[in-house]
Amino acid sequence: MSECFSFHEGDSPLLISVPHDGRNIPEDIARQMTSTGLSIPDTDWHVAQLYEFCDELNASVIVAINSRYVVDLNRSATDEALYEGKVSTGLCPAKTFNGEDIYRDGGAVSDAEQKRRVAAYWQPYHEQLEGRLQQLQERFGYALLWDAHSIPSHVPSLFPGELPVLNIGTNNGSSCPECVRDAVAAVATSSSYSTVTDGRFRGGFITRNYGSPEKNQYAIQLELAQRCYMDEDSCTYNGPSAAQLTQTLRAMLLTFMEISKPRQIAGK
Question: Was domain 5-24+44-65+110-266 assigned CATH 3.90.650.10?
Fold first, then answer.
């Protein structure tokens, strides 16, 4: 474990990334934050716990320790916007999804401070992520990345109405082969959960940067509407709902692993 992430080494081509369930805020940053910022409302609550079953799949798992308010690991180090014309929360957010100030002075994080946080907190996570994918490539001939996220069902600043439960993102099919995307999506649509593929959430920086089908490195982001496994008002984990959901997640991941085998792709 480092100060930036925890890592579990598995024995399969699959790597699970959980970049937004971190809760820690370094003391020097916390001193500058509002009470709202310190309550970290935009956390992907309990996603690491939800994916604990992945030990059964022999998956490697990397989980961020620090809050996305420290630095957003699913944004590029140079902070390009992910979705043209949409609200961008940024590499070092200054406001919550609901538009409330994260810092007491109401200002943005300076360029110098952003660069410091990238070096201290962003770079180690991505070095581990990239290094593990390279190891998987060398061992298995291919590598699979599943970027695990969740978000409240209603966030008016980001999307209208209620979000579907299962939001599969492949950057419009560029982060994995079409047959892989379609097979995983078919499992989702056959479940009891509402599903969309490459809708409002098409995959963030992690999916876009590390998904390289030409290199046999496939990436999929799954954004979950939090109502499917927790109480969104109290942010408490709902064990029975989570247990039901993990059946679908397990089936999606097993399909991802099976359909992505080189012999399967060659036959498509």
Answer: no
Q: Which two tokens stand for residue 41?
A: 């409302």
- Do residues 75 and 205 lie in contact, with contact meaning Cβ atoms separated by under 8 Å? yes
Cα 58 to Cα 37, 110, 174, 182, 232: the distances in Å are: 36, 41, 26, 24, 30
pTM, 2 dp = 0.95
Average pLDDT by stretches of 10, the chain with 268 residues: 86 98 97 98 98 97 98 92 64 95 94 97 98 97 98 94 97 96 98 96 96 96 98 98 98 98 67
For 246, the 3-state DSSP assignment is: helix
Give the H or E element holding residue 238: none
Rounded to whole angstroms, the Cα distance separating 36 from 67 reads: 13
In DSSP notation, 75-105 reads S-TT---SSTTS----SS-SB-TTS-BSBTT
Give the C-alpha separation, 31 to 90, whole Å: 21
Nearest to residue 61, comparing CAs of 151, 120, 145, 138?
A: 145
Residues in the chain: 268
Closest C-alpha among 164, 232, 239 to residue 195: 164
Task: Report the distance separating Cα 27 and Cα 214, nearest Å.
Answer: 43
> What are the residue boundaries of the structural domains of the chain, listed by start?
5-24+44-65+110-266
Helices and strands (H, E) in the chain, number of each type: 9, 9
Query: What is the rounded CA–CA span in Å between residue 145 and residue 260?
Result: 11
- For residue 183, report the phi and psi dihedrals to the nearest 5 degrees: -70, -45
